[in-house]
Amino acid sequence: MSQPSQPRPSAPTPSPQGEEPDAETAAFLPRLQAMLDAPHPLDRDNPLAAARAKASAIFAAFAGDPEPESSLAIHEEIAPGPDRNVPLRIYRLLTENAAPAPLIVFFHGGGWSLGALDDYDGLLSDLAALSGAAIVSVGYRLAPEHPFPAGLDDARAATAYVARRAEAYGCDPRRLGVMGDSAGGNLAAVIALEARGSAGPPVAAQFLLYPMLDVSRPHTVYPSRLRYGGGAYFLTREGLDASVAGYLRDPSLAADPRVSPMNAPDLSGAPPAYVLAPACDPLRDEAEAYARRLEAAGVPARFDCVPGAIHGFLSFGALAGARAARRALADEIRRLLASA
């Protein structure tokens, strides 16, 4: 049976600057690589557990100092899911007599197989403090133990639960956004597309941070994957391939728009979007191509390419560039979720 034709991604525009890491990132990369290369006791017997432990150690080592904000509250809840309960962590400002705040559901990255709620405490605390939005981080099930669509099912269930709980968080349910980085950006993009129909709660905005949007086409379609995916810039082509192999038990599902949102035949009616990509990221080109497709479909979309930065940089709060980008992202949150 032949596959249906897939929408072609728009041709990305080469970045006029930032084709090489900036000085801060260039000095940071050897430290990052040393942690990636360091032996772990579980490398031989349980390489997946070793990879997860290394990822968490990297996030902790380079988290940096949080923004000063004494009135930030963090608590945890459990959302009922389709097959199990889904852990949530909520970050919000405690402000007396404040108007209802915007609300964001966040899905972490890690190739659908790595990442944990703790890894994103620094980033999400800062974003909540800087933007004034309440942010709910979702501990969705990870592959390969729980392949597609388990993580997406959890993302849907969590989004619906958070929307119902908005007023309990002191938030405006009409100002609900979804956000994710890398594979979490994939989940956020899918949830945003599904929000157009009756499948989920209304979503007012989507924030896609160096998202993984197309796992169905060869790497050669996206020059940034060839330029930056060889191993010198953190994320690799081999890592992308391994992530997809763990996520999908059936490789033919790669073309499904629920796996590759780039293949959605029609993006019209999607929520307004902010798409962010580092210049030195294998995923840069597909992020830009998706933003261009959204624009062509009449969706308000802004694409920002950060010169000199690498994949995952927002989580590395020890970098001045990451801290500046967090402040810019907070500005976008306020802009897109300013009113219902």
Structure explained in plain terms:
GO terms for molecular function: hydrolase activity. With 340 residues, this protein is α/β, with parallel strands linked by helices. It has one domain (23-37, 46-336): Rossmann fold (3-Layer(aba) Sandwich), CATH 3.40.50. 34% of the residues lie in helices and 18% in strands. It is built from 9 helices and 8 strands. Strands 1-2-4-3-5-6-7-8 form an 8-stranded mixed β-sheet, with helices on both faces. Helix 3 (121-131) packs across helix 9 (320-336) and helix 4 (150-164) crosses helix 5 (183-194). The radius of gyration is 19 Å and the shape is globular.
Total number of helical segments? 9
Q: Give the number of DSSP strands.
A: 8
User: What is the succession of H and E elements?
Assistant: HHEEEHEHEHEHHEHEH
Low confidence ranges: none
Number of structural units classed as domains: 1
Please give the CATH class: Alpha Beta
Our measurement of the CA-to-CA distance between the termini, rounded to an integer number of angstroms, reads 45 Å
Q: What characterizes the major β-sheet?
A: 8 strands, mixed
Secondary structure category: alpha/beta
Biggest sheet: strand arrangement? 1-2-4-3-5-6-7-8
Helix residue percentage: 25-40%
How many whole angstroms does the radius of gyration measure? 19 Å
**From the coordinates shown, what is the CATH architecture?**
3-Layer(aba) Sandwich
CATH superfamily: Alpha/Beta hydrolase fold, catalytic domain
Proportion of strand residues = 15-25%
CATH topology: Rossmann fold
Give the overall average pLDDT: 94
Gross geometry: globular
Region (Disordered): 1-30
InterPro entries: AB_hydrolase_3, AB_hydrolase_fold, GDXG_lipolytic_enzyme
GO molecular function: hydrolase activity
Keywords: Hydrolase
